[in-house]
Amino acid sequence: MNRETVVSEALDLLDEVGLDSVSTRRLAKRLGVEQPSLYWHFRTKRDLLDAMAQAAMAPHATAPLPTPDDDWRAWFLENTRSFRRTLLSRRDGARLHAGSTPLADLDRIRRKMAFLVASGVPERDAAMAMLTTGRFTVGSALEEQADTGPGDGAELPADVPPIDHESAFEAGLALILDGLAHRTGA
Fold first, then answer.
1. What percent of the chain has pLDDT over 70?
2. CA-to-CA distance for 167 and 179, rounded, in angstroms?
3. What proportion of the chain, given as a percentage, has pLDDT over 90?
4. Which of 17, 95, 149, 173 lies in the 20 to 30 Å Cα band around 165?
5. Are 64 and 16 a contacting pair, CB within 8 Å?
6. Is the domain of 110 the same as that of 77?
């Protein structure tokens, strides 16, 4: 058993039972080991959750970085959509990610910021746009993953349509991008 195996099994457990039911006891049983042996790899459950969050973000963290020839608006949209897809790819993925610090991804974040600035986006606006879209995306994914759909005991009135999460996300993302483009004079 190595660290990667523990994280992989923990993510599979997350997909099966949800974040609230992930425990080191349950994970140890799944791995066929005693619970204290997990502490060889992770001192605390928080350490395990942080490693899970980092591993869960791998599809987004390995997406191609922008190139100087890319249109910053198109890249910004795709980067944010990639983040959303990655959060939604795991059960409770947004909750797992929320509050984590992407220390392993700092170089990529810096390169994305440098691309926006080189594309004419003022540095402060680029930083705030990345922060805003990150939080908007996590919040949108949290709401989507928490939506239990019809029959959850809180029926909507007949004149209130159900939320189309993807359309709502795209509309909010367009507003953020339009505001950023306006600030850059583009």
1. 95
2. 18
3. 82
4. 17
5. no
6. yes
70 and 122 housed in the same domain: yes
Q: Which residues of the chain form beta strands (DSSP E)? A: none
Min mean pLDDT across 10-24, 34-48, 156-170 is at 156-170
Taking alpha carbons only, the member of 134, 114, 113, 133 closest to residue 176 is 133
If asked whether residues 63 and 133 sit together in one domain, one would say yes
Angle, CA of 145, 171 and 88, to the nearest 5°: 25
Separation in Å, CA 110 to CA 38, 49, 66, 184: 34, 24, 12, 19
The CATH code of the domain that includes 8 is 1.10.10.60
- Please tell me the distance from the alpha carbon of residue 166 to that of residue 8, in angstroms, as a whole number: 28
Range of the structural domain that residue 106 is part of: 58-184
